[in-house]
Design a protein that fits this description.
The protein folds into two domains: 117 residues, Up-down Bundle (Four Helix Bundle (Hemerythrin (Met), subunit A)), CATH 1.20.120.910; 43 residues, no CATH class. Helices cover 46% and strands 0% of the residues. The chain has six helices and no strands. α1 runs antiparallel to α3. It is elongated, with a radius of gyration of 33 Å. It starts with 5 loop residues before the first helix and ends in a 24-residue tail after the last helix.
């Protein structure tokens, strides 16, 4: 930590300790390590049965539960990184990249106090280049399909609506005519 002044070290250590306190408070405030998240959906929602619930309500519960699990996993990883950074600080290795050994700039440590890497060696999240298997069997639509949609380029107004249905006729039949004593279908028009 030779490149960091004593004041910088104290600032970063207090930031790490504060973040650790926030993360631990999150886990304790939400139950002992979020114990309910490990239970069944019925136990965590308090419902005896989901039989009488609307499927959308159950879907919402499942979504929220999945989101909570993902948030907790992310926060647990961050807590482990904070603990690791505090350990490196105690050993005098804090502020040095674990990959190349170079000093990590103070500005980077202010932004991410628990980082163990310089910018050049930050582990990248691998973005999968794999495509869904469904794309292998998708074929383009047959010719002529969707020509109207392509012609109008997504715009469809009242005049276009009339053009597309006028061939089917109108509701101006003798039954709807103003004078109903019409004997011939074409006479009242």
């Amino acid at each position: 930590m030779s490149h960091l002044t004593h004041d910088q070290q104290q600032e970063l250590k207090s930031a790490l300790l504060e973040r650790k306190k926030e993360l631990e408070h999150h886990f304790h405030a939400n139950g002992e390590d979020n114990a309910l998240l490990g239970d069944s959906l019925a136990d965590s929602t308090g419902e005896l049965s989901s039989y009488d619930n609307h499927p959308a309500d159950v879907g919402t519960e499942v979504f929220e539960r999945g989101r909570d699990l993902a948030v907790n996993d992310t926060l647990q990883d961050e807590l482990e990184q904070v603990d690791s950074a505090l350990g490196r600080m105690d050993r005098g290795e804090y502020g040095q990249c674990v990959e190349c050994g170079r000093d990590i700039p103070f500005e980077r440590l202010q932004a991410i106090p628990y980082t163990a890497y310089c910018v050049e060696h930050t582990p990248n999240r691998d973005v999968s280049s794999d495509r869904p298997v469904e794309e292998e069997v998708i074929t383009p639509p047959p010719s002529g399909a969707g020509e109207n949609r392509q012609r109008y380029d997504g715009r469809f107004d009242d005049a276009d609506a009339w053009e597309s249905v006028e061939e089917y006729g109108t509701s101006n039949t003798p039954a709807m005519a103003a004078k109903r004593d019409v004997t011939d279908y074409d006479e009242g028009m």
